[in-house]
Amino acid sequence: MLAYYFQLGLRSLRRNPALTALMVMAIGFGVAASMITYSVFRAVSGNPIPGKSAQLFTPQIDSWGPQQNLKGEPAEALGYIDAMALMRAHEAKRQTLLYPVQLSVMPGGNRDLPLNANGYAVTADFFTMFEVPFRYGSGWGAQDDDTRASDVVISSELNQKLFAGANSVGRALNLGGHDYRVVGVASHWNPRPRFYDLFTTSGFADEPDIYMVFNRALDLQMRTGGRNSCRGSLAYTTWQGYLQSNCVWITPWVELDSPAEVASYRSFLTHYAADQRLAGRFDWAANVRLRDVMQWLDYEHVVPPESRISLAVALGFFLICLVNTIGLLLAKFMRRAGEIGVRRALGATRGEIYTQYLVEAATVGLAGGVLGLLLTATGVSGVGILFQPEIAKLAQLDFSLVGLTFVVAIVATVLAAFYPAWRAAHVQPAWQLKSS
C-alpha cells in the first residue's frame, strides 16, 4: 500500500505543478539555509577530543593581581616560574607544557630554499595525553625531556615535502641552524577547535609542522612564536630576565581521571598560590582556575557569535517556510475533499487517509531535499562571504550532511502535513456525496 500511495503522491504532484513547485521551493530553500549554517556551526562547536575532554584540564594561576588581571580571571597562560613549578611538583597523572615556535627548515638533499615550519615546543606527555596518532615512530620519552634531547616529531605533510612520504624516523633535520633527529611522523592530526592552544590561536589554524622538546627550546633561548602577554614595567633585557618576569606565554595541561583527582589538584593550585604570597611574590589572595576542555572552549568563546546568529536566523527562515508549506498542503488536500468523501464512503478508514496524504507529503519533502542538497552544495562553497577563511573552509558537504539534509526535509514536511492530513481525514463523506 505504501508503494501505491507513493504512486498516488507522484500523480498528485504532476497534477498541480505550480503548487508543487511552490512547496518544493519552500522546503528546499529552508533546508538549504539551515544546513549551510549548521555545517559551519557543527565544525566550530564540536568536541575536539570526545574520548578525553572530561579528563584534560588547563590550570590557571593569577600572577598579575586584582589590579591587572582579566576582570578577576587569571591570565590564560603561565609564566616560566609557575609553569616549571607545576612540572616539578608533578601532582597529575600526566602533564605537559607547550608554547608555539617558528623555525626554518634548512636546505638539504635536492632542496635549494628553506621552508618555514610552525609548531610547538612540548614535553613528552603531550602525545599520550592528546592521543596524537603516528604514521611512523612515536613521541619521545620523559628521559629525553630531562636530557634536553634534540628530538623532533614532524607532520605527515612536512614529511611528504622533505622525504617524499617515506619513513623518516632516525633521519637528520636542520631546524633554525641546529640538527635534530626525527623520532616520529604524526598522522594528519589537527583537532578543531585546537583546544590545547587557544591562548595563541583562534582554534582553527592549519596543522602544525613540528613538535620539539620543550627544554631544548629553552636552552636555545627560543622566544615564543605566538602571543606573549605582560603586565607592569618590563625591565628585563636578557633571556633570564624574561624568564623571571611576569610575562605569560606557556600553556599547561594536566590529565586527571576522577573527581577526587580534580579536587586534589585544585587544592594543590590554591596552596601553591598561597605559598607564593607567603614568599612575598604575590600580595593578593590565591586566585586559581582549573577548567576541562569543554569548559575552556566555552570560557574562550571559541564558537564565533556570527555562526550562532546565522544558525538562529536560518532556523527562523525554515520555520516560516514550513508554515507556508502547511498552508499549501492544506489547500492541496482540501481541494480533493470530494475524492476523500468517495474513498471514505467505499470503506477507507481515517488511518488510511492519514497514511496516503502523509506519504504524499513525504514525496514533496524528498523533492525538496533534492533541491535543498543542490542549494546546500552551492552555499557551502560560498560561506567565506560571511565567515573568516580559516572557519569557512571547515564547512564541508560530507555524507552525514547529505543524509541529514534529506532526513530534515522529509521529516519536516511530514510533520507540517499532520494538520492538513487531519483535516482531510475528517471530511464528512455524506456532505461530500450530497454536494457532488
UniProtKB/TrEMBL annotation:
GO terms for molecular function: transmembrane transporter activity. Residues 313-429 form the ABC3 transporter permease C-terminal domain. One of its GO terms (cellular component) is plasma membrane. This is ABC transporter permease. PANTHER family: ABC-TYPE MACROLIDE FAMILY EXPORT SYSTEM PERMEASE COMPONENT 2, MEMBRANE COMPONENT OF TRANSPORTER-RELATED. The chain crosses the membrane at residues 21-41, 309-333, 354-387, 399-422. It is found in: Cell membrane. Residues 20-217 form the MacB-like periplasmic core domain. Keywords: Cell membrane, Membrane, Transmembrane, Transmembrane helix. It is a multi-pass membrane protein.
